[in-house]
Structure formats: C-alpha cells, structure tokens
Amino acid sequence: MNGRFLFAAIGAILIAVVAALWFSGLFGSDVARDAVTQPEAPPETVNPRLVPVVEAARAAAAQATSDANAADAVSAATDKVAASAAKFAADGKTAAEEAAKIAKKACKAPSATLACATAEDGTRYEGAQACRTDGCGPDGFGVFTDERRGWESQGKWENWSLVLGCDSMKGVTTYCGQQVASAWSGFGISYNSEAAAISAEWLAGAGKNPIQLDYPTGSRMRGEMAEYKLDGLGVYERSDKRVLRGRWQAGKLISGIVAYPASGDVVSGTFLDGNAQSGSIAYRDGHLFVGEIEDGPALAEAKPKRGVLYAPDGSIAAQGAWRDGLPVATD
C-alpha cells in the first residue's frame, strides 16, 4: 500500500474516534452533560403497585360526587323550609310586639276582655282574654310570664294557647314562629345556647328534617340532622368560604366534596373523622391527583399521600409517594 494513502486512512480513523469521544461526553461537553442530567420522561402507564390504590380512589371519588349531588338536592329543599321559617318567625315577632302593646293597655285598664293578673302558681298573664264556663284565659294578643322559670311567651293566643309569637328564657329569645297548644309546632326559628338560628318546621318542640343552622360567625349548615348536627345528606358553608357537600355522620363528613376557595382545589372522596382519606384532588391549573390523601387539623388543605398525578392532557405527570405536597418516591 502506498504510504501516503496509509497515513490518510489512519488520520480519518483518528478523526472519527475523537468525534465519537467528544459526543460521548469524555471531554466534558456541556451538551453531553445536559443530556445525561435530563429527567426521565413521565411514565405512560400506572405502576402496577399503585393500580389498586388508584382504582379505590376513583371509586371513592365517584361515590363522593353522587353523595354531593344528593346533598345539593336536600340543600335546595332546606332553602324552601328556611324561607317559610323566616316568614313565620317575622310574623311571630310582629305578634309579640303587638302583644306587648296590648299587655300595657290591659294593666292600665283591666276589663272582661283585658286581663292583668297573677295566678296562684305565680304565673302572670297580661293581655286580651276570653271567658268560658271553666274560667277565663288568654285569647288574642298578650304576654304570659313564669318568673320562677324565667320563661315568657308573647304573641297571639287562641283558646288559651299561643299560636303565633315568641318565647324567651331569662330575657333571651329562644323561638319565634308558629305554635300549637303553646308548643313549637309549624314553621319558625329557634335560637340555641351558641346563638345559632335553627330554621325548621317544628313538631312539639323538635325540628323536623331538613334543617338550616346559621351561626353568628357566618357559617351555615343545611340538610338532614340529628341533635342539630349534620347526619345524612347536607351542605356546610364555613365562615372561611370552604364548602363541604355530601353524606355526614354525627357532624362529620364521610363521603363528599370539599372546595377550597383560596387555592381553588377540590377534594372528592371518603373521609374519616372529617379528614380526607382516599379520592381525588382537582387543581385549579387542570392537574388531577388520584389516590390516598393526607389531611388533618394541622393542614390548611388536603394533600397527596400516595397515588398518581395526571397532567391536564391526561398523561401521567408523577406517581408514587408524596410528602408536603411533593412527590418523593416511586413505588
């Protein structure tokens, strides 16, 4: 072989080797280093270990949506009850005001139709009255007082029983609305020791479902209750604008949807002691987490615990375990 051609061939081989080493990163090329440190592409399928977690979470979220929709229907029915309760409570206050006026008139000028007297048991009635064969009693507008109990009833009376007005205990209003035989029956609003307004249709002093509770803080509960705590289907609008809709037990949400107004996040799923356990977290930017959820009083909002995060286009953005809202490990 001609020496000149031999040297040319060897030179070509050396150039090829150097080029290969250069692009392989042996000489520390920035391009090569960048290629090595690029993160792995998001997985296209769910890790098999996470499949049961994701399936359970999807089922929990689906049930939560169903419960939330049912709660909305009950809440709408509660609105109608609350509107009727508000109307008769207002009518009761008007009747109580008229009763106070008639009571003053009766004590200034008692007559056969106006009484101002104290009974043997210490109770007192001031207002319009009607007499029967068995005696005389409240009939019309008037005020009944039991000083020993601190109880006062004022409003409109029929056949010796209050039918519309307000009751108070030691000067604090406890109820305004309709009554039957001087017992809370019909539509009205009661006020408990926490100053919560309880709007309902009443029967013999007990509120019938559905019920609405309004607190001085601005929070409101509407729906099915037991002991005036949500128990069944209902909606809780908190004073911080957080809204909880779904199925409740003894005042704690067990299945439903929670909307966080500050972040725009929406949690759907199952709850234990009022804290999210499994389901989904829909983020304002379109991402969706499906899996186990971390929640509790110390957290401002529920966070991912273990599962899959989907991008807005439906692809998997991350999966595995989370800590403080960030993925930390892959199952």
Question: Can you tell me about this structure?
Answer:
The chain is an alpha+beta fold and 331 residues long. It has one domain. It is built from 3 helices and 19 strands. The chain is rod-shaped, with a radius of gyration of 36 Å. Residues 1-40 have low confidence and may be disordered.
How is this structure best summarized?
This protein has three helices and 19 strands.
List keywords for this structure.
alpha+beta, single chain, 19-stranded antiparallel sheet, 331 residues, 19 strands, 3 helices, rod-shaped
Shape: rod-shaped
Q: Would you identify the regions where 5 or more consecutive residues have pLDDT less than 50?
A: 1-40
How far from one another are the termini?
A: 62 Å
Percentage of residues in strands:
over 45%
Instruction: State the total count of DSSP E strands.
Output: 19
Class per helix and strand makeup: alpha+beta
What is Rg?
36 Å
Number of domains: 1
In which range does the helix fraction lie?
A: 25-40%
Count of DSSP-assigned helices = 3
Report on the biggest sheet.
19 strands, antiparallel
Kindly state the mean pLDDT as a whole number?
A: 88
Topology pattern, helix = H, strand = E: HHHEEEEEEEEEEEEEEEEEEE
